[in-house]
Each structure stands twice: as structure tokens, then as C-alpha cells.
Amino acid sequence: MSNITKFIIKRRTKDESWDVRKLVTDVKLTTDMNYSAGELDFNLIEVNDGFSVHNGDIVIFNWNHNKTFFGYIFNYELNKGGSFKVTAYDKMRYLKSTDSIMFPVSTLGQRFNTICNFLEVKHKVMANPNHKLKSEIADDKTYFSMLQSAIDKTRRATGEHFFLRDNYGTIELRKYPHYQIKFILGDKSLVTDYTFSRSIENTANVIKVVKTSEIKGKKKVTTVKSVGKGAKKHQKKSTKTITTKEGKKIFTKSAEGGTVEKWGKLVYTKNITSKTNAAQMKQEAQNLLKQKNKQENQLKISAIGNVYLQAGNSVMVKIKDLSQIGVGTKKYLIKKAIHNFGDKYTVDLELRI
After folding, report:
1. Which end of the chain has fewer CB atoms within 10 angstroms, the N or the C?
2. Among the three residues 36, 71, 89, which one is the final residue of a domain in this structure?
3. What residues does the YqbQ/XkdQ domain cover (predicted)?
């Protein structure tokens, strides 16, 4: 694996390090935008005298002189013959820890800084929205879930998309796509295989927002029917009150026409707090319908490896066969990338359609 230009394992608390470039095999790096740490898996085929792998050891990996991974060993297996199978994660692994934090009114960037400062990890805000988030208590949640909540609320308020990424030992808050890759992935450029799929497994075109009424014995049912694509542009609304023992208030919004006719009724129900008023219930139902009333498209590509093909970057894709199903040449966001380093360096990508 001659393109490994640096592969060092070093102790965290001692001035000891080992160059294992010639000892590693099956090196695989996974980056994913779905709130998970970068993961480096590799094997050590033999070990120098006086050296063995320890959890917490630092791993530094460069491919073809590119700074590729900086992280720590979290798991290893010793196999017969003295070889090791090792898993290391970048610094985002520490965001899996749980905590309870009271956040004041603050921006996404400020909350990111608060968490990283507490964890004492190197970090940087690459892009920071001005939007102020309401104060809230995050009780017994992972730091990932706290930041995901802040990112989602910022996106809904501003339309801006942010994500987290470890950049060779520095956790960064980035706006995506972070980097537009300049080359094209396609039939005649790097791509060796691909699959494209469409699914309605997680689709919903009827949304029910349910609230327990403060007045026992009454249930209010409100139904709004909105037209899906391909039908006439009009809406039908109906409201009725039913007396029950449960004392619940239900708001329903459905996409009639288009998707209901094509796919049938696919219902999603969400229970909300009693503090939510009717207008907020309607808005929540409308937001969920917009989010869920669509097919899930997935494009997976296998290609000749390139270190710039990382989760959070975007790349132009041009595949002739995809144009036959209405997917033309365009930029796609890389959601997940699995790099397999070796004599034949390859990468497997999941792209957001």
C-alpha cells in the first residue's frame, strides 16, 4: 500500500509512537452526515517488539500526502498469530456522550462552542447563522442529539443547512455543501457501478396531529384536505367536535388527489403537548406533510477512490442511463462515503437526491 504516506500510532500520555505504514492492511474510512463520528478500520498484520495496541492511542493517517484521518482507538481484537483488528474514531465520537444542559437564548454556533469547550476538543465554527434559538433544557441527551435539534430548528427558521465534520482533529460546524468537487462522476469518469432506487416505505400523505384536551370529555377533530400534484388547485376543510372519555384534540391534514390517488392513504400521527394551540397544530401538520409527502430517492455509486469524495461535499454526476428516468446531470450532496484504501483504492458513496 505504497500510497500510505503516514500511518502512526502513538500513546496519548507518553512520548512513544510507532510508524506502522508497512504493517497495516484493509484500511477503510467511513464518513457520514447522519450525526456519527468518522470511523477508521484497519488490520495490523504483525507488531514490532515492545509495541501493542491500546485503547485511547492516537492514530494519524495520510493517503498520498493528504491529511486523511486523526483520531483515537476505541476497539481492538487480538487474533491468533499476534495480528490486530482495530477501530478508531475521530473526535466527533465524544459527541455520543450524554449530558443535561440548560441552553440560554443562543445561536447554533454558540451551542456548538459550549459543548466542545466542555469536552475540551479542538473545534471551529466555519459558518454561523445569526438566528437565535429559544432557551431550552436538554435533559439526559447526547451532544449529537442536542446539536441535531439546534441544526434542525435553525434550518426550519432560516432555510440554511449545517452539519458537523472532523477535519483532521478539529471538529467543525459547516454549512453544506462545504466544498464543490471540481471533477465529474460519470460513465466515463471514475464510476464503476451504481444503483438508483425510489421508495415510499417512509412516506406519509395524511398527517394527524393529536393533542390531549384540557377539558375532559371532548375531542375536537379538524380535517384539512389539500390537493397533491396533478389535481385541481383547491382545498376542502371540515371541523367537528366529538364527546369522548379520552379528551383529545386531533388535527388532520391530507394530500388528496396526486399522491393519495397514486399510493393510497399513508397515515402518520404525531402526539404533541397540551400547550400547543390550534394554529400551531395546523402549522405542524403542514410542515410534516411537506416533509413526508414525497418519495425517497437514493443514488449509490461505486467509483475509483479520491480523498475529496467526503460526506458533506457535493459532486457533479453525469450518468446516461439515469436521464431515462428523469434524473439528469446535476450536483449531488454526498451523505456517506466509505473509502477502501489499497492497491485498488475505491470509494462507495450515498448521494442525496
Report:
1. N
2. 89
3. 27-225, 245-352
Do residues 225 and 279 both lie within one domain?
yes
User: Do 102 and 243 share a structural domain?
Assistant: no
pTM for this entry = 0.83
Q: Are residues 189 and 317 in the same domain?
A: yes
Shared-domain flag, residues 187 and 307: yes
Closest CA to 32 of 313, 344, 342, 330: 313
Interatomic CA distance for residues 54 and 74, integer angstroms: 9
CA distance 211 to 281: 8
Provide the domain count of the chain.
4
Angle CA 162–167–170, to nearest 5: 95
The CATH number of whichever domain residue 136 belongs to comes to: 3.55.50.10
